[in-house]
Design brief:
Blueprint lengths: L1 H20 L5 H11 L1 H22 L4 E12 L6 E16 L3 H67 L5 H35 L27 H11 L1 H21 L5 E13 L4 H8 L1 E9 L7 H67 L5 H35 L7
Antiparallel strand pairs: 1-2, 2-3, 3-4
């Protein structure tokens, strides 16, 4: 009895585990999973950790360095009567008090480098969100396209069977039946193509999610209405102003400019003198003199100060300063280029959204009209009022409008999500 209970519990556990694995994935879950598991994200986070370590090392340069040493020596005495042994101990400290603000400037630069690495992580997050959103919608489109292909195939099957009935009573010809069978074969082929396309789109999404090749996830897609995409589109300036604050590319370029400006200050420190303080203590003992006597007699203390004044360094400091100024100008130009590039991207996203909305409205009207015409043609064909050629013309027009309507819905949704991303608004479908 106990064994039976254990078996039942084990099966229940497996069932629950499989149910958890088959839990539906919406877009937000896909994004969250990708942000946590993407390999490039992990690498950039390690880069950020490296920047943290560089900052800590730069701060530690403000403090004295301390070292200690222990030495042992053995010397044979002349005549081979014996040997002398001695041990020495020392401790030394050195502190750079002033180095033309180079140390403090380097700390500020390293701190900005941390912020820059964080912006790199944010940039990758945005790129990943864009890629996941696009891949998710592509799977959605492929799934809807497959459903449309199946509907067309089923309709062709009914029409083929109806043509056989009409042929048996003399209301259709063998040519009509041949056309219907050819249309059915085409629709069956389209189902196969759409199935393969869906699998390929799912593999792309799995790759972005860093999922194993053989993993199957149950994607949850929203029920999109025809008017959900027709919400007002913000003006270009509104999108651009938000993008300047939210997009990490501009922030990263601004940080690069600030780092380059500090680089000038760091290079100028080479013209200033540097002051260092040092101190040390040492002692030693041999094995013949009592240790207490040696400690009192052989302890050496040393305190010193060193002032280094640059006189001529073969133009090294001047060259470093000129290079730093060039880097600062390059960083400023890079910031301007980034702002210009961002404006162009915003303009593209805005006009794409407007075009997608206009296309959706037109495609919606076209689809409704072609659907009505096709449904009417089907009724007429059943009654024998039109032949197979007229029916296939209406059917093909309906299929074209169906694909265009579906494509326009997905495209309109994607362009609106792109605007949200540039404005720092969370992706939502």
């Amino acid at each position: 009895m106990v064994k039976i209970i254990l078996i039942v519990l084990s099966l229940l556990f497996v069932s629950l585990s499989e149910a958890a694995d088959q839990e539906s994935w919406d877009l937000q879950r896909c994004i969250d999973h990708a942000l946590e598991n993407n390999l490039q994200m992990k690498r950039l986070k390690l880069d950020r950790s490296g920047s943290d370590l560089s900052y800590k090392a730069a701060k530690a340069a403000q403090y004295p360095s301390v070292s200690g040493s222990v030495g042992y020596s053995m010397s044979p005495e002349i005549g081979g009567k014996g040997e002398s042994q001695s041990v020495s101990y020392s401790a030394n400290a050195r502190w750079t008090v002033f180095e033309g603000t180079a140390i403090r400037t380097d700390i500020k630069m390293k701190q900005l480098e941390i912020q820059k690495s964080e912006e790199s992580v944010k940039a990758q997050e945005i790129n990943l969100i864009q890629s996941i959103t696009n891949a998710y919608l592509q799977v959605f489109y492929a799934k809807e396209a497959l459903q449309s292909a199946i509907i067309a195939r089923d309709a062709s099957l009914v029409q083929r069977d109806r043509t056989k009935e009409l042929l048996s009573v003399g209301s259709a010809t063998k040519i009509d039946l041949t056309k219907m069978e050819a249309s059915l074969a085409t629709d069956e082929y389209n189902v196969v193509v759409s199935t393969n396309s869906l699998k390929q789109k799912q593999r792309v999404l799995n790759s972005l999610l860093e999922l194993p090749v053989d993993t199957t996830i149950d994607l949850n897609f929203p029920d999109l209405s025809d008017t959900i995409h027709l919400e007002p589109i913000p003006e270009i300036q509104q999108i651009y102003s938000a993008a300047l604050e939210k997009m990490p590319g501009v922030a990263s370029s601004q940080l690069s400019k600030e780092i380059a400006t500090l680089g000038i200050k760091k290079a100028m420190a080479g013209y200033f003198p540097s002051l260092s303080l040092s101190a040390g203590v040492s002692t030693g003992n041999d094995f013949e003199t009592p240790f207490v006597d040696q400690v009192s007699d052989r302890v050496n203390l040393r305190i010193g100060a060193s002032l280094s004044i640059p006189i001529y360094d073969r133009r090294q400091t001047k060259t470093n300063l000129e290079k730093a100024k060039i880097s600062a100008k390059q960083a400023e130009l890079a910031l301007m280029e980034e702002q210009k590039s961002l404006l162009e991207e915003v303009q593209d996203v805005y006009y794409n959204a407007e075009a997608a909305r206009s296309k959706l409205m037109a495609a919606q009207v076209q689809y409704q009209k072609s659907l009505q015409s096709y449904e009417l043609a089907q009724e007429q064909f059943k009654l024998g009022l039109i032949n197979s050629t007229d029916l296939l013309i209406e059917k093909n027009a309906w299929l074209v409008s169906l694909r265009e309507h579906l494509e326009s819905k997905i495209n309109a949704l994607m362009t609106m999500q792109m605007i949200n991303i540039y404005m720092g608004i969370p992706v939502r479908i």
